[in-house]
Amino acid sequence: MNASEKIKRKFIKVLVSLMEQEQLDRITVTEIVDACEVTRPTFYRHFKDKYDLVNWYFDILAQKSFRQMGVSLSLREGLITKFRLMMEEKIFFTSAFSSSAQNCLIDYDYECIYQFYKDVIHKKGDGLLTPEIDFLLRMYCHGSICMTAEWTKNRMPLTPEEMADLLIAAMPPGLYELLKDL
Description:
The chain has one domain (52-179): Tetracycline Repressor, domain 2, CATH 1.10.357.10. The longest helix is centred in the C-terminal third of the chain and has 23 residues, at 131-153. Helix content is 70%, strand content 0%. By secondary structure, it is mainly alpha-helical. The chain has helices spanning 3-19, 29-36, 40-46, 50-64, 75-88, 90-96, 105-124, 131-153, 160-169, 173-179. It has ten helices and no strands.
């Protein structure tokens, strides 16, 4: 691991530690850099703001779960893996999904999942992403992110398997037909 990766990991470790006592929106970059014993310019060389740090860490976790769908995991397996990781990183996700600030994880997760599914549909063939399918995809992505955030904020009352099954069941039939074979 290079020096840049090490400091990024230190930032996220400190941020998660701070999240144990405080909501993300109330944590400052100053608190993060002070705990890391680095300067603010060091932080800003790597991230635009604390939400950029959150989204960077989310990408790392997504590579282990959601983005493996169609590669080594089915749709259901990818969702289950994502929800299991979220349970393991409960403090991080509960705090991150509680924020609605600009550049927040809810918006970032939506963009990631929408683009991922859109790319899958494009790979299946040109012309499949009709305006109607795109509408269903955007609606489904908004709904699934909203329900995922609600699940985290409500202390994750359903199992990862239950969450995956419910999100798949909620997928509009026309969309499901395009994504079921991931």
